[in-house]
Write a structure and sequence with these properties.
The complex is a heterodimer. By secondary structure, chain A is mainly beta. Chain A is globular, with a radius of gyration of 26 Å. The N and C termini of chain B lie far apart (about 90 Å). Chain B has helices spanning about 1-15, 15-35, 235-240, and strands spanning about 50-55, 55-60, 65-75, 80-90, 100, 110-115, 120-125, 135-145, 155-160, 165-170, 180-185, 190-195, 200-205, 210-215, 220-225, 285, 290, 305, 310-320, 320-325, 335-340, 345-350, 355-360, 370-380, 385-395, 400-405, 440, 445, 450-455, 460-470, 475-485. Classes of the chains: A mainly beta, B mainly beta.
């Protein structure tokens, strides 16, 4: 309770300060507002939206020379990026919910990954070359976006028009990985080319190619060609991805349609750190080998989308999407000295194909006060295997078909107050029929104070491992549970926002948010039998709550923009423990701030961003006591700060642009943590790979425009 | 359309300003491309080409008529060349007591090395069947290899005499990732005995004590009931005990239901067999599990197959032997078998499958190490019994002792000599080597340690483990090398 009071007090005090300076009422002056799509009946300004949508615009993306979504979201409050140095993937977590609970969309359409669609996305595979803006909505959005949108959604809106007849943009970016850099074998090398062409006034086309070569973080290791036992391989796995995108956008009268094709190919090289010397005692010679693995990831996306208006104001939206992703593994025994491969095996161990279509119809019975939407959302998903099929060898086909229907209505009592209830029913071939609901409301007070109250629900469908795992361990067995039901998430968010125009050139925005997410039927691995052997299975028994307070302030004065955000977020876990005292909220503070300045005279923009990730505490299983009960102990993951600085300068009327920057100025590498299974406050901390240290980049962009 | 685009592009580029920008951009990109060719991969140092004997010594008494003597190449030969071996002898006479094929000329055997070969043998023929005695020896020494980059190193010498093995390289046939075998290794004879580990159940001790051990390699367990009549034990008593008499279920109590891991025969799970029959209780016997059937992922093991079920047993003393009573738990009658001690062995083994005694262990003086899965007991923290793969015990009951020696600045496997042996370090705990030699997470052996072992004949050996997996990373292919300390 104290926290709430503190935040409200802080919010009021910032506004009050602003009010004093507010000499003239500039409400009537037309100001450019951000336009958002996420959760809307049709594109509209952020202000009109019943949802609270956070926008990251092109300017920010370009300034940071962020190449993929993982690079970009690092600085966002409430979001943290979790790199996995072993798999090469980067996941997202939002309010402490991992990427299984966050849904990622491109142009409203969920993105496929090797285990499903929408969630569990590897952020390094989302390339940002063609991005208009990124919209983030926090909270359960099950009615609007279906299953797995429990903690929130990230919607990536791509560019679909160009003002020139022909536009060519090509860029090269060279980046150090920590202090490592070489032309080929070390560092990060990115090249991209994008051609926009307006075929005629109704048809726009765009073709983009990019290549991102991450040579791994060596950190004193010696890479592939090394035959001793101590230092082979890399600390962070090297990987390369190639991405081709094609867009055709048609717009005439009241119809607009686009087709988008996206092909991605990624290879990850795991040169084994373990070297078998294969010492031959008889001859006293070695013939060192290593078991190396090359993973390949191929993804195809075809998205076709239509929207338009008929009968003067009835609006429709429809998309059809076919996506596939396959993961292959090439494994072999590498004879290091003779550079020969033996025992080579190639297998496709995971693949997913998804056909999904969603359609909505708005304004069926339309009055000024009343608006409604009905829609369907169909996902036909077919998958083979999982990470485990590498271990188990057996690949089972899994089909998940869901047929959802949803509706919502918006009632505008007056220009200030509107309410939007919604509901979705989800039928599926595997799970019981599920219902999700939402209720959003918005009230605009005088003086540009906006209040939003958003309640929503969303489910998380059990993943392949939880359903079908079969793992036999010397001491115990783990079995999937095909009878699992979905986890159910409920969220409540309140946002209070105030915009103040201090004068024509000075805008202050303050936003206070309080969010609560309750996850029920959380799937947990549990001991279900001990006769004759310990057998574990997945059961829907657990609960998980988060409570989050955040305050965001931004001030723009002419070409200065300053942002300051602070959040205090807590997680409550329900543990299988005798000590109920462990079941309480553990809070973590986070802070982010950024300063952006555009020095127009010399065509140079400067930015400095800092994020403080506070100490995270959580209860972890530490041991069994003498009676065989599970004992939990508080584990801690240390705090760290993340500071980036960039300069962007353009020459020759923006034909050439250069970005220079330093990422991770504070040189963060590993973070000490006692929050691991078997850990706890008395345990020796382990080091979690968070980053590879301070790195520098330079990006050169060449823009060509014709007409 | 495409032509049109290109034309437009061309026209635009013709303006001078554009040209400059375009040029500078081109120069910059080509500059980047040229420099990229500077990156180079490191060059690795290669080992020389070596031909060596498989073993360092052979016991001449073990050769009946002739022996193919194996020569190992470090790599496949990539050219035709020759190998010259020098023969010296004491007491034995070439052409009288023995000869070789190809024959020696001027005490030298010349053997062709053909391109593409990776090993070779030559034949030793024993002409005098009574060739033996402490001073008799025949020595083969590699003195020349004409192959490019060759070196004479490793086992360049082979000694044929009547003494204990002086060492060599050993690959116990544990049986791959199911580890289906128990392998008894005799270092001094350089031999091994391989048995399928689920072909026996109980071991009846042949020493002074009357003790019976369980087959821990298949994870058996047992607990006494309060009953002494095997036919009248209520089945419900036994079935109630079944949730308790388990292995590796995290219950610290279950340590009492398996034999002491140190190998002390007085600490078996079954109490000492009493002279007084009325003191010998009926035991519930957990028969452990069959050998695993799955081929696990490379680097993992699958040791445990299906559960082998339950039996009830009672053991009585019978003269200088044992009477075993056994039955299924629901039976009201039982079978009986007499098992006599044989003091040449540690144990006489019994199998419920054959309902008879079976040959398992070699004689007690004829093995030093046994490779097999093992039922361990984790005591800190108290976890109870736990299943270990890739486990090694030494022959405690045959008076073998060993200790682990860590590498120090002064001492390592290569320079360790008999004078470096510290007698006080020897322990009879059979798990001295145990699981300490390997890291199952990295699937490799620890290179910072080696072992000293004293065999039943008081030969001292140093042992270094060299592999846990084969070159393709598959588990259950251990390797070690050993050398006698004299």
């Amino acid at each position: 309770m104290k926290i709430i009071i503190f935040f409200i007090a802080l919010f009021i005090s910032t506004i009050t300060v602003a009010q004093i300076k507010n000499t003239s009422d500039l409400d009537s002056i037309q100001k450019i507002e951000e336009i958002v799509i996420t959760g809307q009946y049709s594109k509209q300004s952020v202000k009109k939206s019943v949802f609270d949508v956070t926008v990251i615009n092109t300017k920010t993306i370009e300034q940071n020379a962020a190449n993929n979504l993982a690079d970009l979201l690092n600085q966002t409050l409430n979001i943290s990026i979790n790199p996995n140095t072993k798999s090469g993937k980067s996941g997202v977590s939002l309010f402490g919910f991992d990427s299984q609970y966050v849904k990622i969309l491109i142009d409203n359409i969920p993105v496929i990954n090797e285990e499903g669609i929408g969630n569990n996305i590897d952020l390094t595979l989302i390339n940002l070359d063609d991005i208009e803006q990124i919209e983030i909505v926090e909270g359960s959005m099950g009615v609007q976006y279906g299953s797995n949108a429990v903690a929130g959604i990230i919607n990536i809106i791509t560019k679909k028009k160009s003002t020139s007849k022909i536009k060519i943009k090509t860029a090269i970016q060279e980046e150090t990985v920590g202090n490592e850099y070489e032309w080929f074998n070390k560092g990060k090398h990115i090249q991209s080319l994008k051609v926009d062409y307006n075929i005629n006034k109704n048809l726009y086309s765009s073709l983009a190619y990019s290549r991102n070569d991450f040579a791994g973080f060596w950190n004193g290791r010696k890479g592939e060609i090394y035959d001793k036992e101590d230092l082979r391989g890399h600390d962070w796995l090297p990987k390369e991805n190639n991405n081709i995108k094609l867009l055709l956008n048609y717009k005439k009268n009241k119809l607009s349609a686009f087709y988008k094709f996206d092909y991605l190919n990624e290879t990850i090289q795991r040169y084994n750190q373990i070297v078998e010397l294969n010492h031959i005692a008889a001859t006293d010679t070695d013939n060192p080998t290593a078991l190396d693995r090359i993973y390949t990831n191929r993804r195809f996306i075809h998205n076709l989308s239509f929207n338009g208006v008929f009968n003067t104001n009835k609006k429709y939206d429809l998309y059809l999407s076919y996506q596939s992703q396959t993961k292959k593994l090439n494994s072999y025994t590498y004879y290091i000295r003779s550079n020969e491969k033996d025992n080579e095996q190639n297998n496709e161990y995971k693949s997913r194909t998804v056909f999904t279509t969603k359609g909505t119809l708005n304004n069926i019975i339309s009055t000024k006060k009343f608006n409604q939407q009905i829609g369907f959302d169909i996902v036909l998903e077919k998958g083979l295997g999982t990470e485990l099929s590498l271990i188990e060898g057996d690949i089972e086909t899994q089909k998940l078909h869901t047929y959802d229907f949803f509706t919502s209505a918006e009632y505008v009592f007056n220009p200030k107050f509107s309410v939007r209830p919604g509901a979705r029913i989800s039928l599926s071939n595997t799970f019981d029929t599920q219902f999700t609901y939402s209720l959003s409301s918005k009230y605009i007070f005088d003086k540009n104070v906006e209040l939003r109250f958003i309640a929503g629900s969303a489910n998380r469908t059990p993943n392949y491992t939880e359903l079908f795992e079969r793992f036999l361990h010397p001491s115990h067995d783990v079995f999937g549970n095909e009878n699992l039901s979905s986890e159910k998430g409920y969220s409540l968010f309140t946002h209070l926002k105030k915009k103040t125009w201090l004068n024509d050139n000075t805008k202050l925005t303050n936003k206070l948010s309080i969010g609560y997410i309750d996850l029920k039927d959380k799937i947990t691995l549990l001991l279900v039998s001990n006769n004759p052997r310990d057998t574990y299975s997945y059961v829907n028994i657990n609960k998980y709550n988060t409570l989050n307070f955040s305050l965001n302030n931004s001030l723009s004065i002419n070409d200065f923009k300053i942002n300051l955000g602070f959040t205090y977020s807590g997680i409550k876990q329900y543990l299988n423990s005798a000590n109920a005292n462990n079941e309480k909220y553990l809070f973590t503070p986070n802070l982010n701030t950024s300063i952006f300045y555009n020095y127009r005279k010399i065509n140079t923009a400067f930015s400095l961003t800092y994020k403080y990730n506070g100490k995270i505490e959580s209860y972890v299983f530490s041991k069994f006591d003498n009676d065989g009960n599970e004992v939990y102990s508080k584990g801690t993951t240390n705090a760290f700060g993340w500071l980036d600085a960039t300069v962007k300068k353009s020459f020759f009327n923006k034909k050439i642009e250069t970005n220079l920057g330093v990422r991770n100025i504070l040189n963060v590498t590993k973070i000490a943590s006692t929050a691991f299974i078997g850990g706890g406050h008395e345990a020796q901390p382990i080091a979690i790979d968070m980053a590879y240290g301070r790195s520098y980049f330079i990006k050169l962009t060449y823009n060509f425009k014709h007409k | 359309m495409a032509d049109h685009t290109l034309l437009n592009l061309h026209i635009t580029l013709n303006t001078n300003k554009m040209k400059n920008i375009y040029k500078s951009f081109l120069v910059l990109s080509s500059f980047l491309l040229i420099i990229t060719s500077c990156s180079k991969d490191p060059i690795l140092e290669q080992d020389p080409f070596v031909i060596a004997f498989d073993n360092l010594s052979l016991n001449i008494q073990n050769i009946s008529d002739q022996e193919n003597i194996k020569l190992i190449y470090s790599n496949t030969a990539n050219e035709n060349s020759t190998l010259v071996i020098e023969v010296t002898n004491n007491i034995a006479v070439y052409g009288v007591d023995y000869l070789t094929i190809p024959a020696a000329e001027n005490n030298r055997i010349t053997i062709p090395i053909n391109k593409g070969e990776s090993q070779k043998t030559f034949t030793f023929k024993k002409l005098n069947p009574n060739l033996m005695g402490n001073d008799v020896f025949i020595n083969f020494k590699i003195i020349e290899i004409t192959h490019a980059t060759s070196s004479i190193q490793g086992n360049s010498n082979l000694l044929l005499n009547s003494s204990a093995s002086i060492g060599g390289d050993f690959e116990p046939e544990v049986g791959g990732p199911n580890e289906g075998n128990q392998v008894f290794v005799d270092l001094s004879n350089q031999t091994s005995t391989v048995i399928q580990r689920d072909t026996w159940d109980l071991g009846f001790y042949c020493g002074n004590e009357f003790r019976v051990s369980l087959n821990g390699s298949i994870f058996m367990a047992t607990k006494a009931t309060n009953y002494t009549d095997i036919d009248t034990v209520p089945e419900s008593v036994l079935t109630n005990m079944q949730t308790e008499v388990l292995v590796s279920n995290g219950n610290p109590e279950n340590a009492n239901y398996v034999d002491a891991i140190n190998g002390d025969v007085t600490e078996t799970a079954i109490d000492e067999i009493s002279e007084t029959d009325s003191e010998n209780k009926v035991y519930l016997l957990n028969m452990g599990s069959k050998i695993g059937l799955y081929t696990p992922n490379t680097g993992s093991v699958d040791m445990q197959g299906s559960f082998r079920g339950w039996k009830k047993i009672r053991i009585l003393k019978n003269g200088d032997g044992y009477t075993l009573q056994y039955a299924n738990i629901e039976d009201t009658t039982h079978q009986e078998i007499f098992i006599a001690k044989d003091n040449l062995y540690n144990f006489i083994h019994f199998s419920f499958d054959t309902e008879n005694t079976v040959d398992i262990e070699p004689q007690k003086d004829n093995w030093d190490l046994c490779f097999a899965p093992f039922t361990y007991v984790i005591s800190n923290p108290a976890y109870g019994s736990y299943i270990y793969s890739d486990f090694i015990i030494h022959n405690r009951k045959g008076n073998v002792a060993s200790y682990q020696q860590s590498n120090t600045n002064e001492l390592n496997y290569d320079n360790f000599e008999l004078t470096d042996v510290n007698e006080t370090n020897f322990t009879n705990d059979q798990t001295t080597i145990g699981s300490n030699w390997r890291n199952i997470f990295t699937r490799s052996v620890y290179n910072d340690r080696f072992y000293i072992l004293k065999d039943p004949d008081d030969n001292y050996y140093k042992i270094k483990f060299t592999a846990l997996v084969n070159q393709d990373g598959v588990r259950g292919f251990p390797q070690f090398e050993y050398t006698i300390l004299e």
